[in-house]
Automatic annotation (TrEMBL):
Coiled coil: none annotated. One of its GO terms (biological process) is oligosaccharide catabolic process. Pfam families: Alpha-amylase, Malt_amylase_C. It comes from Ethanoligenens harbinense (strain DSM 18485 / JCM 12961 / CGMCC 1.5033 / YUAN-3). Gene3D superfamilies: Glycosidases, Golgi alpha-mannosidase II, Oligo-1,6-glucosidase, Domain 2. This is Alpha amylase catalytic region. SMART domains: Aamy.
Length: 555
């Protein structure tokens, strides 16, 4: 398989609002990020993905952009950004920006013009429709509850918004919109950034005619996959973007494509399709139940294995995977896929990291995941800040009659705010995140879980992530080896082999708190070289201890 730096890289994702405050206003900012670039370099990551830092009214914490070419006032200035970029490049770190162009803020100048009339330059920059029988143009729901349509008195029409009413969807069928977006992208790339993560890029082409979606009777908002994925022109628009912008630079691109299938990913992330380098698929973190995404179900490992192996074998040799357990929209990895109890948190955090980082694809480490940070036990709804969480509470409890207690259990397990509590730097006030009042509560366990306690401690989760990343940088088989599932039917063991020329890697991960026997595959001697493991003492042959991970290399 042909080599590429973005295939060999490990990406560190930063949610700037919660990473490091440098001026005491309780909100993370760019100088705060710059002050910790050395930490990211020490971890071993190669690329930093910054969630949106552009001017925004923060209805959806920066995913509602009002000016693509200026920095959010709360985060700092363009001079701060230029300094961050320079410092990163001096450390050998690349900077990937978050491109949010399925929608803008309703405070963007384009929307201000568009809503004024039906015949100005920007009138068709968004998706406007007359109502139908005095109601919304169709039955589409927003990911943030309620209808996906908002009536605008001024223009006397409805406009489409897959997210909040303050995030109107752009009309990508309008070549002027594509031209404006491509110009903006080129402007940032000429400043020297190293790529883009493209927000909900699978949604930019809408189903023609905007017809009612097939939603189950009584279904809730947010069945987004019904109508938001892969409209007829999405690949055409991405090939145009690649031709006119992306192909002019040596950069990395990753599309966020909720609802994407393996077959569609072969187009988006195909090695030679001329679109993107890779995509984020969401099958392993998606849950569509009676309450949409909201659930407190236990981990279903067989289902998780089936999904991950389907993606691994499906793209092997034809396209490229991204690898992630969590991000700013998902609960904390160790709480969801491991066991965040006192007894098993560290061990299971290292085990799930092994399971992910030994797969084929580019791994993403979300801020705090490398410390084994956990979900947050907020006791009241008021402690949550996320618009998706607050709207869902209103919809499910006040409009659909779900009990407060059940919804709080759902929030504890699934709310995006689990990932958005401040980064835990040390055991000082507010975990060293701010000298002021943090915009969102700090997880009370910061006194035990923080970077200061872990950096330099060879037994810490941080050091284990350092080892995993160093192995990826030193063993081609981890990047380019093919993937062969092992023990697919086992309920508790996640195991697979990677093969490259005359080498075989065997990865064994016990997702349970039981001692299990583990048959080794043919050709795998019983005294191989152990590459990494999360128990200090030698392993009992053909057995896996609770939450044990072991990786063997056979030459
Ligand atoms: O998220 C896309 C999206 O579908 C999210 O709603 C996410 O899948 C869901 O919350 C998981 O349950 C992107 C950004 O990552 C997210 O932060 C933004 O809120 C959203 O787009 C709108 O820009
Ligand atoms: Ca600040």
């Amino acid at each position: 398989m042909e080599k590429a730096w973005w295939k060999e890289a490990v990406v560190y994702q930063i949610y700037p609002r919660s990473f490091q405050d440098s001026n005491g206003d309780g909100i993370g900012d760019l100088p705060g990020i710059t002050s910790h670039l050395g930490y990211i370099r020490e971890l071993g990551a190669d690329v930093v993905w910054l969630c949106p830092i552009y001017q925004s009214p923060n209805d959806d914490n920066g995913y509602d952009i009002s000016d693509y070419r200026s920095i959010m006032s709360e985060f700092g200035t363009m001079a701060d950004f230029d300094e961050l970029l320079k410092a990163a490049h001096n450390l050998g770190l690349k900077i990937v920006m978050d491109l949010v162009v399925n929608h803008t803020s309703d405070e963007h100048a384009w929307f201000a013009e568009s809503r004024k009339s039906k015949d100005n330059t920007y009138s068709d920059y968004y998706i406007w429709r007359d109502g139908k029988d005095g109601k919304e143009p169709n039955n589409w729901g927003s990911y943030f509850s309620g209808s996906a349509w908002q009536y605008d008195e001024g223009r006397g029409q409805y406009y489409l918004h897959f997210f909040s009413p303050k995030q109107p969807d752009l009309n990508w069928d309008n070549p002027a919109v594509r031209g404006s977006v491509f110009d903006m992208m080129t402007w940032w790339l000429q400043k020297g950034i190293d790529g883009f993560r493209m927000d909900v890029i699978s949604m930019i082409s809408k189903q023609p005619g905007l017809l009612d979606g097939e939603v189950a009777p009584g279904a809730l908002y947010g069945d987004g996959n019904v109508f938001t994925n892969n409209g007829p022109h999405v690949h055409e628009y991405l090939r145009e973007m690649n031709r006119k912008v992306l192909s002019q630079f040596d950069i990395m691109t990753v599309g966020e494509t909720p609802g994407v299938t393996v077959e569609e990913a072969k187009k988006y992330a195909g090695l030679h399709t001329g679109e993107l380098n890779m995509v984020f698929q969401f099958e392993h973190v998606d849950h569509q139940g009676p309450y949409g995404k909201w659930n407190d179900d236990p981990l279903d490992l067989p289902k998780l294995k089936d999904i991950l192996f389907r993606w691994q074998t499906g793209l092997d040799g034809v396209a490229w995977n991204s690898l992630f357990w969590d991000n700013h929209d998902q609960p904390r990895a160790v709480s969801r896929f491991g066991n965040d109890s006192k007894e098993w948190r560290e061990r299971s955090a290292k085990m799930i990291a092994t399971a992910l980082h030994m797969l084929q694809g580019t791994p993403y480490v979300y801020q705090g995941e490398e410390l084994g940070m956990t979900n947050v036990p907020f006791r009241t709804l008021e402690e949550y800040r996320d618009i998706e969480t607050r709207n869902a509470y209103d919809e499910l409890v006040h409009k659909r009659g779900l009990s407060h207690e059940q919804m709080m259990r759902f929030l504890h397990r699934i709310s995006r705010d689990n990932a958005r509590t401040p980064m835990q730097w040390d055991d000082g006030a507010n975990a060293g995140f701010t000298s002021g009042t943090p915009w969102i509560g700090v997880n009370p366990n910061y006194t035990e879980i923080n970077a200061k306690a872990q950096v330099g401690d060879p037994d810490s989760v941080f050091s284990y992530y350092q080892e995993l990343i160093a192995l990826r940088h030193s063993h081609e088989i981890i990047v380019y080896g093919s993937v062969e599932p092992w023990l697919e039917q086992d309920e508790h063991i996640f195991a697979y082999r990677r093969i490259l020329r005359d080498e075989t890697l065997l990865v064994l991960c016990n997702f349970s708190d039981q001692m299990l026997t583990v048959p080794l595959p043919d050709g795998c001697a019983d005294t191989p070289a152990q590459l990494i493991g999360n128990y200090d003492d030698a392993a009992p042959t053909a057995a896996l201890r609770p939450y044990e991970a072991r990786v063997y290399l056979y030459k």
